[in-house]
Automatic annotation (TrEMBL):
This is Prenylated flavin chaperone LpdD-like domain-containing protein. InterPro entries: LpdD_chaperone-like. Pfam families: PAC_bac (PF21758). It comes from Paenibacillus polymyxa. It comes from the Bacteria. Residues 1-92 form the Prenylated flavin chaperone LpdD-like domain.
Length: 96
């Protein structure tokens, strides 16, 4: 897709599409939150980093559900997904 990037983050007990965040370096970040999903905590954090590193458009689709997750488990999973996003950006920078 040229300089454009699509990132898919899914997992847990019930992978799904919960949140989509899109943007570009010179455009505002836009998020679509489906139903009451809260994956925007992940997608928007990664979007801010992508926006600084890439000239193209990007979309981040995310949906992960863990049955009966505690607040601590949600925090750990969110932190892990954000770390993976950072690693992805590092890999993409090396590939240029």
């Amino acid at each position: 897709m040229g300089e454009d990037i699509i990132v898919l983050i899914s997992g847990g007990d019930q992978p799904h599409l919960g949140t989509i965040t899109a943007g570009a370096r010179l455009e505002p970040i836009q998020t679509v939150q489906l139903q009451n999903h809260k994956e925007f905590y992940i997608t928007e954090e990664i979007a801010v980093r992508l926006r600084k590193e890439f000239a193209g458009n990007f979309a981040i689709c995310c949906g992960a559900h863990l049955d009966h997750a505690t607040k601590d488990e949600i925090r750990v999973l969110t932190d892990m997904a954000i770390q993976l996003g950072k690693e992805l950006i590092g890999e993409l920078k090396q590939a240029r």
